[in-house]
From TrEMBL:
Domain of life, source organism: Eukaryota
Organism for this UniProt entry: Imshaugia aleurites
Domain AB hydrolase-1: 123-278
Pfam family for this entry, one: Abhydrolase_6
Designated name of the protein: AB hydrolase-1 domain-containing protein
Listed Gene3D superfamilies: alpha/beta hydrolase
């Protein structure tokens, strides 16, 4: 009996170890990695038509689906979302228009309300892994983004190549090129200067957002946006897999993180590294050297079980470190933080780092999970703080 039990126990252990090794083997292949990192085939809006934004809770013709050309993915599927007070002012004319996909968006009233208002603000939205522009907490997120100035703040959101209706296969290069194409559309077709644009991003989108912010800051002359918001960002893919737990409980690769050499070896198989910690530093250094005004806000909930909030603390340190010619060690920095931290009780805490050129702000919330936070008032406040600081005449 004992022998049999032992036999079955060892068979199950062998099977589990075999499955785990098989999974690791699969993870070293680029195609499987792409599916794990981007989850682009998990749409979550299967039974709804993205061309009918009304079915996601929008008013008739409040949201215009259209396409943006990208060198990486041919065409990207995008939504332009009107803020509610602006919609109210033009309700009759909007309702009289055709709704649904716009082959020529420049012929639509909603687009003209964006292009022709010299005070309009635009938020370019970079969503996280999986899903489409319409899934999960993204729709409440769009409302929170424009709630502070609902006759001024428009939202532009899109699916990266390989996601939803955008063709192609996702990759680090491809996603960056897609986001650059969307910014180019906003500045060239809609005519909105970077000073009236804010880049909002969550989760995987934060890595794209840093790449894009860095790209434009490095142009000559530099293009720096009113601000960049990162919700639930991560340091890089290697640290992400080291800390990631499936459904918050089953560690994927973290057991291996105890064997640094093996982990480092597996790390060499990572195709898309998304080195956000380097990009955030490069972005800040470039702006400081060019004396460009910049604002960067990092927001993370302590109860985020997909990506632990420690990632934000590390990124914040890398950002602040880049403002100091001689740098700051993590321990020095922790002490400075402790002294300047504003404790908001059950709402969490805020630390702000100001230089002559920029404001870097870290908000650690007590609650908000990984994506529920996107529809919360902290998001509205973060947007308003950035737009008002960039141009105090906004109100
Ligand atoms: C911090 O900044 C210093 C000075 O620029 C740099 O030498 C150092 O590598 C930075 N530290 C990290 C962890 O990036």
């Amino acid at each position: 009996m004992a022998y049999l039990l032992f036999k079955y126990a060892s068979i199950s252990v062998a099977v589990l170890v075999g499955l785990y090794a098989g999974l690791l083997g699969l993870l070293t292949t680029p195609a499987f990695q792409a599916h794990v990192v981007y989850l682009h085939k998990i749409q979550m809006t299967w039974f709804k038509d993205l061309d009918v934004p009304e079915s996601f809770g929008f008013l008739r013709s409040q949201t215009t689906p259209f396409a943006i050309k990208s060198s990486a993915s041919e065409t990207l599927y995008a939504w332009h979302i009107l803020p509610i007070e602006l919609y109210r002012q033009h309700e009759l004319a909007l309702v009289a228009e055709p709704s649904g996909f716009a082959v020529d968006i420049t012929s639509r009233l909603a687009f003209k309300l964006l292009r022709d208002d010299p005070d309009a603000r635009l938020i370019i939205h970079l969503h996280g892994a999986g899903g489409t522009v319409g899934s999960g907490y993204r729709v409440p997120n769009y409302r929170a983004l424009s709630a502070g100035q609902p006759n001024k703040i428009h939202v532009l959101t899109f699916d990266y190549g390989g996601f939803g209706r955008s063709r192609g296969t996702p990759s680090e290069r491809g996603l960056c090129q897609d986001a650059i194409a969307v910014v180019d559309w906003a500045t060239e077709v809609a005519g909105i200067p970077p000073s009236r644009i804010l880049i909002f991003s969550q989760s995987l989108g934060t890595a794209v957002s840093l790449a894009v912010s860095e790209h434009f800051a490095l142009q000559s002359p530099p293009k720096v946006f009113a601000g960049t918001i990162l919700v639930a960002p991560f340091v890089d893919v290697a640290m992400l897999v080291a800390t990631y737990r499936i459904a918050g409980s089953i560690p994927l690769l973290s057991p291996l993180a105890r064997f640094p050499l093996l982990f480092k070896y597996l790390g060499t198989f990572i195709q898309d590294k998304w080195l956000s910690k380097d990009r955030i530093a490069q972005y800040i250094r470039t702006n400081e050297a060019n004396e460009e005004k910049y604002q960067l806000t990092l927001i993370h909930a302590e109860d985020d079980y997909d990506i632990p909030s420690h990632h934000t603390e590390v990124l914040f340190w890398h950002a602040v470190n880049a403002t100091e010619p001689r740098g700051v060690t993590y321990d020095e920095f922790k002490e400075v933080k402790q002294n300047s931290k504003r404790d908001l009780g059950a709402a969490g805490s805020v630390v702000e780092w100001r230089t002559e050129n920029g404001i870097i702000r870290e908000e650690i919330l007590k609650t908000g999970l990984h994506d529920v936070v996107m529809g919360d008032p902290v998001i509205t406040m973060a947007v308003m703080r950035i737009f008002e600081t960039a141009d105090p005449s906004l109100n």
